[in-house]
Amino acid sequence: MVAETSKNARSARVQVLQYRGKSFVTGLRWHPLGSVTGHMKEARQYGREHHLDIVAIRRTPAIIQAGFVARSEEVIKGMYSLAATLAGQLGDSWIAAWKTESEIDQYALVAVYQGGVISGCDMIGTGAEVRRRVAQQRSRGINFDNEYLPPEFDMGGQPLDVAELLQPSHLKREYRLRPLVFGLSKPELVQLAVLGVLIAAGIIGWAQWQNHQDQIAKEAAFQAEQQRLAELARLQKESGMEQTPQALEHPWAKRPSVADFLEGCSNVIYQLPLSIQGWQFTSAVCDGAQVLSSYKRSGNSTADKLIQATQGHFSDRPAFFDEGNSATLKFDISLPAAGDEPLKDAIVMLANLSSWLHSFTQTPVLKEVPVVVPIQPAIPGQPAPPPPPPPQWKQFELSYATGITPLDSLSGAPSQGLRLREITTKYETGHLVWSVIGDLYAK
């Protein structure tokens, strides 16, 4: 590639590079056009005001831009804009510099950001001038997606293969310069008008689609925020205390207290009869939302008798299994959330809880389990949220079996950070055997 040396009427700013018989113009004055449908009228007005009559038009989804030059600069119709040619192939965010001749200190520079050629960055200059212009763009805080810089600049990036990009097979009509006022035939004007209508329709359609997506995202974000506020209000109402937004991130805040869990489960389990019309009690389990009690048929008892005897006393009709010889009765309960509370160090909380249970001759098992923080789903039309930070607490699973009722063994126990998950009782050889599962949260 060789830089044009004839400058009889051409200013130092405007240069022409020759490559395989094609002329590429640098030094255009780039100006954004605001009107989608009337951009040529706007370009002609700008040209008249600044005495510029040759133009290259660039259209992207983000910008319509015109590069102006005067006919007096010895630039003619049919030449190509160097910046437009490269921008059409390299995309909407990049900066490139390369040496135009091996024998002299001459470099070309083109930079594009957000789809538009940066003013003053379509130029030919010395290595020092071009290097200074690259540093100037960086100092403005512009982060280009790609940087194509020569190794001798020592500024990073990678070399640009200009020869590949400017070969004739890659050149398009839209990269050419054309007269701003004269020289367009009627068919060209018709084609330009049709193209403008199609582009305008495409931009309007894209804008409508983008607006629709934005509305979906806003609605989803609004709904998510409403749900979060409703959940926080529920915690405050049920706990009877003011709750910070951080409470929504703490699993223990949303679960019943030990006292409420024990009372809610015990009030139902202790009222269960050991026999209902010949059906014998075998077990019951309470998870804080319901109590499921199991009964086994004996003698000449029947399913009809069990249904009739339990009607109106439980939340649903009996569910039969074991070929109709066993049945489960469900009793729904509703327990309030305990709300948030501070946690102590794990070594202290583990010692306090195990010591309490040991005093009741219990043998609790406390083992640490991994804490899994749920990942928030992405809002439609928005990128996926970043992964949640690691939790600031630990979780230990509590389990033990006993012949003492949980109401007796846990009433008054150190319950800070303790939440019960399940209470189970089984009727064996004339007495009840209990098992408890819960979670202890600690720092």
SSE string, helix = H, strand = E?
EEEEHEEEHEEEHEHEHHEEEHEEHEEHEE
What are the segments in which pLDDT stays under 50 over at least 5 consecutive residues?
3-10
The assigned structural class equals: alpha+beta
Tally the structural domains: 3
Number of extended strands: 21
Shape: elongated
Whole-Å distance between the termini?
69 Å
Number of helices: 9
Tell me the strand percentage band: 25-35%
Helix % is 25-40%
Rg (C-alpha, Å): 39 Å
Write a concise synopsis of the structure shown:
With 443 residues, the protein is of the alpha+beta class.
Describe this structure in words.
With 443 residues, the protein is α+β, with helices and mostly antiparallel strands. Helices cover 29% and strands 28% of the residues. It has helices at 39-50, 82-90, 127-139, 162-165, 186-239, 258-269, 303-310, 346-358, 406-410, and strands at 2-3, 15-19, 22-26, 29-33, 54-59, 64-69, 80-81, 94-99, 107-113, 116-125, 146-148, 178-179, 275-276, 279-286, 290-297, 319-321, 326-332, 365-369, 394-402, 418-428, 431-442. The strands form four sheets. Strands 13, 14, 15, 16, 17, 18, 19, 20 and 21 form a nine-stranded antiparallel sheet that branches. Strands 1-2-3-7 form a four-stranded mixed sheet. Residues 3-10 have low confidence and may be disordered.
Features:
443 residues; 3 domains; 9-stranded antiparallel sheet; 21 strands; 28% strand
Give the secondary structure arrangement, pairings included.
Blueprint: E1 2-3, E2 15-19, E3 22-26, E4 29-33, H1 39-50, E5 54-59, E6 64-69, E7 80-81, H2 82-90, E8 94-99, E9 107-113, E10 116-125, H3 127-139, E11 146-148, H4 162-165, E12 178-179, H5 186-239, H6 258-269, E13 275-276, E14 279-286, E15 290-297, H7 303-310, E16 319-321, E17 326-332, H8 346-358, E18 365-369, E19 394-402, H9 406-410, E20 418-428, E21 431-442
Parallel strand pairs: 3-7, 8-11
Antiparallel strand pairs: 1-2, 2-3, 4-6, 5-6, 5-12, 8-9, 9-10, 13-14, 14-15, 14-20, 15-17, 16-17, 18-19, 19-21, 20-21
